[in-house]
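Data availability (excerpt). The following record was deposited with the supplementary files.
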Amino acid sequence: MKKLFVLLFLLCVVVKGMAQQDVRTLRFEPHLGVSFTNLTNSGLDTKNCWILGVGAQYQLDEKFGVVTGLNYSTYGAKDNNASLNLGYIEVPLLAKFYVYNGLSVHTGVELGYNVYDGRTDFLLFSEANKFAAGIPVGVGYDFKHFTINAQYYFGLTKAYKDFSYKNRGVKITLGYKI
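Predicted structure:
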């Protein structure tokens, strides 16, 4: 994990071509990545998951853009060989602020619909909630047509109907702006 962050940092330093988006333009960004998630108050361990999707960014001025998209994200937690796996179709609605030469911060809300509730060797007598909402807070870097984003997701809704567990986790994605 530490090596991944060092590699991403070096990549950002080495590449000099900034690709901050032109004002009043709409760009699309297919992206994929990894996430490290857990369920709050569950006593379980972090689970490695993934994310795949496409984003759309409209640049309002030099420093401010609005981002939305459609993602498939997996969340979950594990305990030895047992694991809880949740899959969501998500729609983020984010404000993105450029702070310096392609470096940005973003936050907003992310709404999700649960399409997968899988359990491996795990007894949990509760159904997954169909709807999810959370607040992503992150940082990103644009260079040439590529983007790297890292964010923390704070789940606001319960993942399961009969438990107070909420999704939480770090997401790291690599995208390509079209």
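Summary of structural features: The chain has one domain: 15-176.
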